Amino acid sequence: MAATDSKHSSELKVDDIEKKEEKAEDIDAHYDPAFVKRTLRMIDWRMLPLLGLLYAVALIDRTNLGIARTAGMEIQLRLDIGERYSIASMIYFVPYILLQIPGNIVLRWIGARNWLTICVVGWGIAQLGMGFVPTWGWLVFCRVWLGVFEAGFFPALVFIITCWYKRHEVQQRLAAFYIISIVFGGISSLLAFGIAHLSGKAGILGWGWIFILEGAFTILLGLLTWLFVPDFPDKATFVTEEQRKMILDRVEADRGDSIPDKMTGAKLLQHLGDPIMWVMALMFLCSTMPAYAIGFFITIILKSMGYTTLMSLVLTCFPYFFAAISAFVFAAISDRTRQRALWLGVQNVICLIGLFVTGYSHNNGVRYFGLFLVNAGASGCVPEVLAYSSNNITSHTKRAVSTGIIIAAGGIGGIFATTVYRQKDFPRYMPGIWATIACQFAMMLCLCLTTFIFTRRNKAYREGKRGPLENMPGFYYTT
């Protein structure tokens, strides 16, 4: 009798799972398809260009040291002494790492518009101040404050975007705003070269004008953030009540967390105890490490090949443009096939090939081609890891914690990149290349581990051998 009841219970569980899956797949059928499409496009246009521009400016402001160094900052501040340049680059990431989770908690408390405005204006002021620093020590001081205000920014963007869409719509959106940042990052070197020609105006050298004008532009963007940045679906005012209901219904049917849950100490400890979250964090570290290495050192590497300052800045652009195209193509394929790990692995291999080519070739043209592959692979993995992680969690509190931890790990990747590419290893930076290669192999191991665990858990749940995944009936992990 007990065996019969157990069998009957398993059959009911499977029926519930199938009904949940049907609901997740068919929720859009309850709404006019034209209405759904029109609303999603409106949200895309309201959200992605502005957030993409803000993140582009954030990336430019945190990585423009390499360009300013090439434009003369190294001589005036004596960044060629010891590891001064690496320390000035790295120190930013210390507060950036420590303040990730507190930033996401504050985000829900004071709202997206208030929090993002504080972040943008704050780091704009820090960036502006870097244009007036008289010594290397003051440069480090400004970089610390840059890290303080940027800490809450990127996780907030990812948190907000992933709350608006179904799981298999997320990566193209994450890639879209990240691509905007890649393109702007590519042209920032030429923009900085043009700004550097203001050298001598008002007694300020060209590298100082780079920081001053980019900082002033960031502060202006902070005011636009206050006026136009979107909030969470349950709070946003730019959608109608009908549109809000449709968005929340789709999210609820897809993963069951349309309504925010309250953060408690017990929940925080529970989320921090999830080992998969830490594996995802390691994967993000491995992805950002080569991305930061390119951001901080590509212009310097090109100049070491014998190119002039102008040609080095021009050649910096094209690997970014190629990376933008590659990231979008892989994001579209990943969303369409509903697979994450496979395409992460492909881009990981592309990055790995690029590192071997750049590190071991003695032909400058071939080494330059290797930079294309490194940038494309790394840039595509960044939004892919974020999508992979967000697809496999439920609840706002876990999303806040996991996003903070994962992006903090990206900051550790930044520290790693800025410290293993040492001044004494100039011009080929081979120890840095080896360390970056090791990160890519670690990424592959993590992918194998998560794929094995998710596949096994999905199978056990489908066969009724375990309870709901992520405490959500009908939820399956994305592999």
From TrEMBL:
Q: A single GO molecular function, which one?
A: transmembrane transporter activity
Annotated transmembrane regions: 47-65, 85-107, 114-138, 144-165, 177-198, 204-229, 276-301, 313-334, 341-362, 368-388, 400-421, 433-455
PROSITE patterns cross-referenced by the UniProt entry: MFS (PS50850)
What are the Major facilitator superfamily (MFS) profile domain coordinates in residue numbering? 50-458
Q: Does the keyword Transferase apply?
A: no
Membrane topology designation: Multi-pass membrane protein
Q: What is its main location?
A: membrane
Q: Name one GO cellular component term.
A: membrane
Where in the cell? Membrane
Q: Which domain of life is it from?
A: Eukaryota
Keywords tagged on the record: Membrane, Transmembrane, Transmembrane helix, Transport
By its UniProt entry, which PANTHER family does this protein fall under?
A: MAJOR FACILITATOR SUPERFAMILY (MFS) PROFILE DOMAIN-CONTAINING PROTEIN, PERMEASE-RELATED
Any idea what this protein is called? Major facilitator superfamily (MFS) profile domain-containing protein
- Organism of origin is Hebeloma cylindrosporum
